[in-house]
Design a protein that fits this description.
Blueprint lengths: L1 H14 L1 H28 L11 E5 L20 H10 L4 E14 L7 E8 L2 H5 L4 E4 L4 H5 L4 E4 L1 H8 L8 E4 L2 E9 L22 E4 H5 L11 E2 L16 E2 L2 E5 L3 H20 L10 E4 H8 L4 H31 L1 H9 L4 H35 L14 H26 L3 H7 L1
Parallel strand pairs: 3-8, 5-7
Antiparallel strand pairs: 1-11, 1-12, 2-3, 2-6, 2-11, 4-7, 5-8, 6-7, 9-10
Helix pairs in contact: 1-12, 2-10, 2-12, 2-13, 10-13, 11-14, 12-13
């Protein structure tokens, strides 16, 4: 029976080509707009590290004074140097990484080599294993390298291409901020979005170009700063040349906790640490800690821009308007063939059969609208990528959106076809036959 209805729908659409084209175009416009924004929202709110996100946690403690004007209950995102160092040495988590970033001057260790500025991430050895960073050549440095302040560096693929033409550069040397570093590894393209591990410069952006041992990085000349800082008290610039200033938070810190028991133990350790610091007089507040998983951390920081959510709602509003227009076109189309419906009803077709036939026709329009809407969505994503916004590069068409687009188009067309199909099924056969 479905095949028969499909054949009737195809014949009907061919007889009313203009109406069929208008209905298909209306569905396609609505699907194109809504799927474009749905894809952007899906990309921005996705899991940046599938398979690893369940074991990564972001600890926070609160070293701020109790009378700090405007302070919210939420502890600072980052840690002071002394808290980062203390928690790093705590040793409870199987893996932990303390980090920050800035720009550093770099040149090849050769006469007359040009100097250029590159972004860097200073971190500790576990960073690469914790976050599943893939390597092209060489490997990461060790905990022993961290402890000995080894002058080693890991390059990104892009930086290795720029400085060494993409060849295996392990063992070669670079001059970074006046000191000589040995290249021990080159990582493959790696830039999880959102950039969960450091949201200070936005959740979406380019990856760092090189990675240095954190404690070696602290030994570099201080002219290059220590990344974004948040200081309080009478000297807001205290951390500019003294990363150990007690009133400045700037260091990101992440831990890997593999079991719920480890999570509970670590949360208890944070409370105990804060209580100890309060007894020592460093913390004024009662223990105020957070230990969020990666996805909870992204939710807490609202990494998806408000404008994207608003534009998504607007896009679905466009789809609704298109559907309202489609309903009107379907009513006009189905009523045009009232005579045909009357004859079918007079020959014994039930109202349910007429309703089903009309819905099948609406479904065919939905499939056609969905197929036409896909290139429109692709065009819409291309236009988003041309915008000067931080998340532009993240706007790409996920293959999973193909099924969503087609399903949404068919569902929309079926919903739009319900009322016109009901009206068509209630056509009085006697009046239609008499008018023939």
């Amino acid at each position: 029976m479905f095949g028969y209805y499909l054949d009737l729908a195809w014949r009907s659409l061919k007889r009313h080509k203009v109406l069929a084209a208008l209905m298909t175009l209306a569905i396609a416009l609505g699907i194109g707009a809504s799927v474009t924004m749905l894809a952007v929202l899906h990309n921005l709110s996705g899991n940046p590290l599938p398979g690893r996100s369940d074991v990564l946690f972001h600890p926070q403690v609160d070293p701020r004074p109790v009378d700090l004007p405007g302070a919210k209950d939420e502890p600072p995102d980052d840690l002071t140097y002394i808290d980062a160092l203390n928690l790093y040495r705590l040793g409870i988590a199987p893996r932990r990484a303390v980090m920050s970033r800035n720009w550093l001057p770099v040149r090849k260790d050769a006469p007359d080599s040009p100097l250029a500025m590159f972004t860097d991430r200073a971190t500790t050895a576990d960073f690469f294993a914790m976050f599943g960073v893939p390597f092209l050549y060489g490997s990461a440095w060790s905990a022993q390298d961290d402890a000995s302040h080894a002058q080693v560096v890991v390059l990104s693929r892009a930086m290795n291409q720029k400085l060494f033409g993409g060849e295996d550069s392990v063992g070669k040397t670079l001059v970074i901020a006046t000191k000589t570093f040995c290249v021990i590894g080159v990582i493959d393209d790696w830039n999880p979005q959102p950039r969960f591990y450091d949201l200070n410069d936005g959740a979406f952006g380019k990856a760092e170009q090189m990675y240095l041992p954190f404690f070696t990085w602290l030994d570099l000349p201080q002219d290059y700063g220590y990344g974004p800082m948040d200081c309080w008290g009478s000297n807001p610039e205290a951390g500019g040349h003294d990363p150990k200033a007690k009133q400045c938070t700037w260091a990101q810190f992440w831990v890997e906790l593999d079991t719920p028991a480890q999570v509970a133990d670590y949360r208890a350790a944070l409370v105990q640490y804060s209580a100890q610091q309060q007894q020592l007089g460093r913390f004024q507040r009662a223990p105020n800690v957070r230990l969020r998983g990666l996805l909870d951390w992204l939710d807490a920081k609202h990494v998806v821009p408000v404008t994207v959510r608003m534009q998504t709602w607007i896009a679905f509003g466009v789809l609704l308007i298109c559907l309202v227009n489609t309903v009107g076109l379907m009513v006009a189309k189905f009523l045009r063939k009232s005579g045909e419906i009357g004859v079918r009803r007079a020959l014994g077709a039930s109202r349910r059969a007429i309703f089903a036939q009309c819905l099948v026709e609406a479904g065919v329009v939905g499939v056609a609208g969905g197929l036409l809407g896909l290139p429109m969505a692709w065009l819409g994503l291309w236009m988003v990528r041309q915008q000067p916004v931080s998340f532009a590069a993240s706007a790409h068409f996920d293959p999973s959106m193909l099924g969503i687009a087609l399903g949404l188009a068919v569902l929309s067309a079926l919903l739009a076809g319900v009322w016109p199909a009901l009206r068509a099924s209630r056509v009085a056969p006697a009046l239609q036959v008499k008018s023939l």
